[in-house]
Each structure stands twice: as structure tokens, then as C-alpha cells.
């Protein structure tokens, strides 16, 4: 990001626009007041400096000068330079208060999204249950954000909307905005440079946020220092038209539509904050970091309490949902829980991604509950031939068995069965 004053020193447009265009219904409150205050400050700065320079020249000491008695007070002058600034201060306060009230009174029909901040990633939870690391919102519809934090104080800031609010542990804050410009109508001019910026890359060379979204989204930052990777807590706000938002929501509800389990797992690794502590090149980060995703699968590891355990699928799942249950020796218990933030498909995808990094056999998506027919049966036979079922597959199989049991019990009796029925039972039923 460049500073407009410095970048415009060689340009005649010294008063060029300092902000990127506002993209929300309340952005003008901030912009207008900022420019008015800036003009007032520049005017009085130039006036006072000019008067100081003139007074220093006019009343400079001269040879033979004799001090003369001068007035100690000038009521008219003192009232003038007190009343005028007071009027300006009251007017600025009133204008700021009008904008504050507008930005704090959330419309009743606002679309609610829960924001969960944690070191060092964002999770946006939608009423449908979808969870995304980027903020997706509909255009021309009020959006209410309910913000909280799982660890330390963070602060959500979207410059294009001129909104900012702290995320505080143990409490909920609220803010709202209404986006007026869809993301595909704008493009971040700094993105082309950011693609080559090593500070915005993860260990595998991928960007810290979705590149496709980044080319057409609005910047979303954490603006409250929250630890070593605070500067990487960056994502995007994507504004869709109504049809585009519904299409995105449908896709977000089904991780399977986004690729293979390994592909989805890699996306989650980059976009859920895993890369901040866990490498994928076999390099461990003892102390404030975590063990690498590569090189440990299948190993027997030692925990802080002296017990041991095998790093397998069950251990990975437990570490995602309850990371404080088993702390590896040599590491600190700093990982936050992802309980309620990742569904079973996403956890399965992360497990398969870790397996792929360790040259282990990788499983495909298990059939969804309720799938029937030869295709589902063929996939089941193929899974059996490839190796033992994953915990997710076993759970899906158990659920299908449970569903089939009552269905069998409720099958109507055939004609032969009815003819052979015990007469006493028939009379009893009657």
C-alpha cells in the first residue's frame, strides 16, 4: 500500500483521492467527515504558520530597539479564536454522531453471519451451517456480523466498507454494512504485486487466501496485534449478486463439489490457519509452533504426561476437535479447537491430505448416507478391496444398517404369510 501524499509529491494532483472508492451505504459518512477535517486542519496549519513567519519578521529585534508597553489582553481576539474552533468542534461532533448512529443501528431485515476469530484465521458461519474462511455476502442487502474470538483480541476491518469492530474473547460484538458494488466489478490493483510477495505465501508457495477470490474481492484484515502471525491474518470479502450468492452457498454446503479429498484438504490447510504452525516439508516447529504434517503419520509419539500413542486417523480427528486432550512432548498447548467449524467431510479431507503427504493410501469420498443402487454397492466393494474402511466410512455403514433395520421390520406380510398366520394371534390382534 502506498501513501498518497508521498506518491503525489511529483504530481500536480496533491489533493488526489486518499481512499479507494467506498463500496457500502455508510462509507460516505466516514469519507465526507475525513475530508472536511483534513481541509480544516490544512487551512489552519497554513494560516498559523504564515502568521508566525510574518510576526517573526515584522517584530524581529533591530539595533537600537527599545521595548514598549503592549496590551496583555484582547477580549475580541480571544473570544474569536475560542468561539470559532468551538463551533467547528461541535459541528464535527454532530456530523460524526450522525454517522455513528447510522452505522450502529442495524436494519431489522439484515442477513446474520457469525464471525469467529482465532490465531490466525477467520471463520464465517452462515445460517445454513456453511462455514467459509472468506466472507461472502449478497449485494444490496444489509449484513449483520456477530463477532467473537476464541483466544485473544482481534479486530475485523474491511477498508472498502469503512467498517471495523473488535473480536473479544468471552463476549459478542456486532456491526453491519450493506455492500453496493459486487466483487466482480472491481479488482485489487495491488494483487498482481502480492502474488510475488513471499511474505504473503505459505510454505508450499500458495497464497494466504484464495487467489480466485482475491482478484475480485475486498481486503479484510485483522487490525489488532494478536501474535507472531498477525500480519498473515488476511482474507477477502466477496460480494455476490443474489443469484451468485445462492450458487456459492450451494457449493459451500458440499465440500465434495470442490474437488477430491486431497485437494479439499490442501485448501483447508492453506485457508484455515494450519500453515501458520504446521509445515508440509517435514520441518517441525517446537515451542510456539507444531509438528509437521509430513513424516509423522503412523509413528508412535510421546505426550507431555508420559503416555504414548499412534498418530493415525483417530488421533488427527481428536487433535482437530479437542487439541488440548493430548499435547505432544516439546510443544505448547496453543492450538484452538475447530469444533463446530469443520464438518465431517472437511475433517476427512484433512486426514487424507496428511496421509498423501506421508505417501499413505488415500481414500475417496465415502458414499453419502441414503445412497442406494448398484453405484453405491460398487463403491462399497471397491473400498473393501482397497483396504480397511475409514472411521467415516464405518460410521456411514453403521448409519445405513440402522436405517435398513426398521425398514425391513415394517415390510407388509405377503399373501402366503397372512394365510399361514396363527389364528390365535390374528384374533388377538383384532
Automatic annotation (TrEMBL):
Bilayer topology term: Multi-pass membrane protein
Chemical reaction(s) catalysed: 4 Fe(II)-[cytochrome c] + O2 + 8 H(+)(in) = 4 Fe(III)-[cytochrome c] + 2 H2O + 4 H(+)(out)
Domain Cytochrome oxidase subunit II transmembrane region profile: 1-107
Ranges of Low complexity composition bias in the record: 406-415
Species whose genome carries this gene: Posidoniimonas corsicana
Transmembrane domains' residue ranges: 33-57, 78-103
Span of domain Cytochrome oxidase subunit II copper A binding: 108-251
Superkingdom of origin: Bacteria
Residue segments, region Disordered: 280-311, 361-430
Keywords: Copper, Electron transport, Heme, Iron, Membrane, Metal-binding, Oxidoreductase, Respiratory chain, Translocase, Transmembrane, Transmembrane helix, Transport
Protein name: Cytochrome c oxidase subunit 2
Amino acid at each position: 500500500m502506498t501513501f498518497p501524499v508521498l506518491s503525489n509529491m511529483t504530481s500536480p494532483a496533491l489533493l488526489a483521492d486518499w481512499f479507494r472508492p467506498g463500496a457500502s451505504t455508510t462509507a460516505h459518512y466516514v469519507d465526507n467527515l475525513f475530508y472536511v477535517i483534513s481541509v480544516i486542519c490544512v487551512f489552519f496549519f497554513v494560516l498559523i504558520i504564515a502568521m508566525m513567519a510574518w510576526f517573526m519578521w515584522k517584530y524581529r529585534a533591530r539595533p537600537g530597539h527599545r521595548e514598549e508597553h503592549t496590551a496583555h489582553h484582547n477580549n475580541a481576539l480571544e473570544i474569536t479564536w475560542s468561539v470559532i474552533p468551538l463551533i467547528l468542534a461541535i459541528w464535527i461532533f454532530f456530523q460524526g454522531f450522525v454517522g455513528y448512529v447510522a452505522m450502529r443501528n442495524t436494519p431489522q431485515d439484515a442477513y446474520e453471519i457469525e464471525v469467529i476469530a482465532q490465531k490466525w484465521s477467520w471463520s464465517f458461519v452462515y445460517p445454513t451451517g456453511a462455514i467459509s474462511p472468506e466472507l461472502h455476502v449478497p449485494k444490496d442487502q444489509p449484513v449483520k456480523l456477530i463477532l467473537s474470538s476464541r483466544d485473544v483480541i482481534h479486530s475485523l476491518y474491511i477498508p472498502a466498507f469503512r467498517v471495523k469492530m473488535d473480536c473479544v474473547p468471552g463476549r459478542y460484538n456486532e456491526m453491519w454494512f450493506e455492500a453496493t458494488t459486487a466483487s466482480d466489478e472491481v479488482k485489487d490493483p495491488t494483487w498482481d504485486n502480492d502474488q510475488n510477495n513471499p511474505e504473503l505465501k505459505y510454505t508450499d508457495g500458495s497464497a494466504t487466501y484464495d487467489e480466485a477470490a482475491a482478484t475480485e474481492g475486498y481486503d479484510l484484515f485483522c487490525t489488532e496485534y494478536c501474535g507472531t502471525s498477525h500480519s498473515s491474518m488476511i482474507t477477502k470479502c466477496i460480494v455476490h449478486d443474489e443469484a451468485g450468492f445462492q450458487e456459492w452457498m450451494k457449493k459451500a454446503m458440499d465440500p465434495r463439489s470442490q474437488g477430491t479429498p486431497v485437494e479439499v484438504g490442501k485448501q483447508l490447510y492453506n485457508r484455515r490457519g494450519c500453515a501458520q504452525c504446521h509445515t508440509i516439508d517435514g520441518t517441525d516447529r517446537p515451542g510456539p509452533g507444531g509438528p509437521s504434517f509430513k513424516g509423522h503419520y503412523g509413528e508412535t509419539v510421546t505426550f507431555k504426561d508420559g503416555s504414548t500413542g499412534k498418530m493415525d486417523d483417530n488421533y488427527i480427528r481428536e487433535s482437530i476437535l479437542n487439541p488440548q486432550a493430548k499435547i505432544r512432548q516439546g510443544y505448547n498447548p496453543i492450538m484452538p479447537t475447530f469444533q463446530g467449524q469443520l464438518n465431517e467431510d472437511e475433517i476427512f479431507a484433512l486426514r487424507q491430505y496428511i496421509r498423501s503427504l506421508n505417501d499413505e493410501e488415500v481414500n475417496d469420498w465415502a458414499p453419502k448416507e441414503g445412497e442406494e443402487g448398484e453405484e453405491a454397492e460398487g463403491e462399497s466393494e471397491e473400498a473393501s478391496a482397497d483396504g480397511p474402511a475409514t472411521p467415516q466410512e464405518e460410521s456411514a455403514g453403521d448409519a445405513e444398517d440402522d436405517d435398513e433395520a426398521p425398514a425391513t421390520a415394517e415390510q407388509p406380510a405377503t399373501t402366503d404369510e397372512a394365510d399361514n398366520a396363527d389364528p390365535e394371534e390374528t384374533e388377538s390382534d383384532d
